[in-house]
Amino acid sequence: MDCTLTNNAFTIDLGRFQVDTCQSVDGLTIGQDTIEIRQVTASGELVICKQPGARQAGEVTITRGLNGNTAFTDWVNETLQRHSPSTARQNVTITLIDSMKQPVRRYQLINAWATSWQGPSLQAGDSTAATETITLTYEDCTVE
């Protein structure tokens, strides 16, 4: 019997920017444009045909508990402060793993780069964990 995979165990490989732990990944999508072609038949009837167009780029948001690892900020600095989007582009792999720590499914984000970073919300006396969030834009996503 094949059981449904719980989606709370995953690993992330951010290319040359290594992050040791992550809390969540949101926004994994694959999209495609739709092209409408309007034609008139020989009898004068309007016909609308639809066909697939170009693949759409996507965005994904990754959140992690704040600790001494600076991979997220290093990646953002590479893109936004050093203005080096060509060297900042990385292929990112998100791997779902089962209870036996075996890979079940992989999502490959092709040519991803950091487009924003958000630091923790700080409030005196607050006991919630400090987190940081990074938004990645990617050119393509494949599911294996």
Short summary:
The protein is built from 2 helices and 9 strands, in the order βββββααββββ. By secondary structure, the protein is mainly beta. Strands 1, 2, 5, 6, 7, 8 and 9 form a 7-stranded antiparallel sheet that branches. A two-stranded antiparallel sheet has the order 3-4.
Structure write-up:
By secondary structure, the chain is mainly beta. The strands form two sheets. Strands 1, 2, 5, 6, 7, 8 and 9 form a seven-stranded antiparallel β-sheet that branches. A two-stranded antiparallel ribbon has the order 3-4. Strand 3 and strand 4 form a beta hairpin. It is built from two helices and nine strands. The protein is elongated and about 75 Å long. The model has no long low-confidence stretch (mean pLDDT 86).
Instruction: Please tell me how large the radius of gyration is.
Output: 20 Å
N-C termini distance: 22 Å
Distinct helical segment count:
2
β-sheet strand percentage:
over 45%
SSE order in H/E notation? EEEEEHHEEEE
Helix percent reads 10-25%
Low-confidence stretches: none
- Mean pLDDT comes to 86
Structural class: mainly beta
Largest sheet: 7 strands, antiparallel
Global morphology: elongated
How many strand segments?
9
SSE order and pairing:
Elements: E1 10-13, E2 24-26, E3 31-40, E4 46-56, E5 58-65, H1 71-81, H2 85-88, E6 90-97, E7 103-118, E8 131-138, E9 140-143
Antiparallel strand pairs: 1-6, 2-5, 3-4, 5-8, 6-7, 7-8, 7-9
Fill in the keyword field for this structure.
144 residues, mainly beta, seven-stranded antiparallel beta sheet, 10% helix
